[in-house]
Amino acid sequence: MNLKKYCYRLSKGKLVMFTFLIILFIGSIIFVNNNDRFYNRSIVEVTSIAQVDEREVVDQRQNRDIVFRQYLTGVVKNGPFKGQSIQLSNEYSQSRAYHPELSVGHAVFVGIEEQENGALFGEITEIKRDQVLVLVGWLFIFTLLIVGRKQGLFAIISLVLNTVIIVYTIHQFAATANAELLLLMSFAVVVITILSIFFVSGFHVRTYAAILSTLIGTFALLGIAIAVLELTGEQGLRFEEMAFLSRPPHAIFMAGVLIGALGAVMDIGVSMASSLFALYEQNNQISVKALIESGREIGKDIMGTMTNILFFAYVSGTIPSLLLYFLNGAPLGFTLSMNLSLEITRALAGSIGIVLTIPIGLVTTILMIEWKRRKL
Fold first, then answer.
1. Which residues of the chain are modeled with pLDDT < 50?
2. CB burial class (10 A; 0-12, 13-18, 19+) of residue 15?
3. Which domain holds residue 91?
4. Which of 82, 107, 128 is the last residue of a domain?
5. Of 306, 355, 342, which is closest to residue 229 (Cα–Cα)?
6. pTM
7. Keyword annotations for this protein (predicted)?
8. Which of 74, 215, 243, 350 has a C-alpha 20 to 30 A away from that of 124?
């Protein structure tokens, strides 16, 4: 009878949660399709496409492209000109390098000018994408909940909190003249690590082991990276992409190294702690030697894949820049130096953190297991 009541309560709780999510989903879709009044910028919905012209262009390197110009008619959806018709033009290339091709029904942000005869003309600044973003966001949420269930929910909460913490930290750095970004980000890393692992793993001894492993490994790699850059005088690093910032690029780069490596190091710390504690829970009498051997095998299995993931994640973002340099005839060495020096350095620093966290996680977890044994 008690089992039936428990199953009934569990099913009822899932039904309430599912209903709540569906209501949120429908409400968010309705909102993003009717939220024009909340924007300060003018929004225009494309109602018709009058004409499309095209021309072929060739640059100095004989790269060919086709440029299209659309002549559009739209209706203003918000602001003082709401409901009025407006004439627009949209220029885009076949390569879609800058602006996208517009279709009837697309909503765009527009800078509006009123002519002397009362006619409205405008310049398109960007396309309104919140509908697509909301759909993709809900797809991510539902996938995570279906696969991870309760842990998926905690992962979503953790992700939201981590995003808020990072954005707030960067905002505080930008708003404060003498703020130290590396110090602020170090504090943020501690908070993010504790919250993320507690949300995912709960309040267990293995959670404490994972938190300690992650923090020790992350700050160890930061110390090694700082020491290496000091000894080499930062030779070979190209900070030109940060030239427009009014702050020292070194601190900003190191903060990026710290945050970029945190995810991989955290994964190693959690994997080591969870795996070794699972072995201990199956056999409370397992020897330290057996745990060490198991930890080494686990480390070997995940070290190579995590290093590759980190490398590909950093380098993939530079593909458009590499193509841009190569298509314009830039030398190979110069192109790689300009686009990959910082990314390769970040990947190497993260890889060092991964390698360090394996023995650190192994030792920390075994110490926690021995402490738990003595406590029992």
1. 1, 6, 8
2. exposed
3. 37-128
4. 128
5. 342
6. 0.73
7. Membrane, Transmembrane, Transmembrane helix
8. 243
Q: At which of 128, 157, 184 does a domain end?
A: 128
The helix/strand/coil state of 69 is strand
- Tokens 């990072």, residue? 166
> What is the separation of C-alpha 216 from the centre of its chain, rounded to a whole number of angstroms?
23
Please give the pLDDT value at position 244: 66
- Contacts of residue 205, defined as CB under 8 A and 6 or more positions apart, other chains included, come to 277, 368, 369, 371, 372
Given a contact cutoff of 8 angstroms between Cβ atoms, the answer to whether 365 and 276 are in contact is yes
Residue 18 lies in a domain: no
Q: How high is the pLDDT of residue 264?
A: 84
Q: How many domains does the chain have?
A: 2
**Inter-axis angle of helices 332-375 and 205-232, nearest 10:** 150
C-alpha 218/C-alpha 215 separation (Å) is 5
* 363 CB-side CA count, 13 A: 9
One domain for residues 42 and 166: no
Q: Classify residue 20: in a domain, yes or no.
A: no
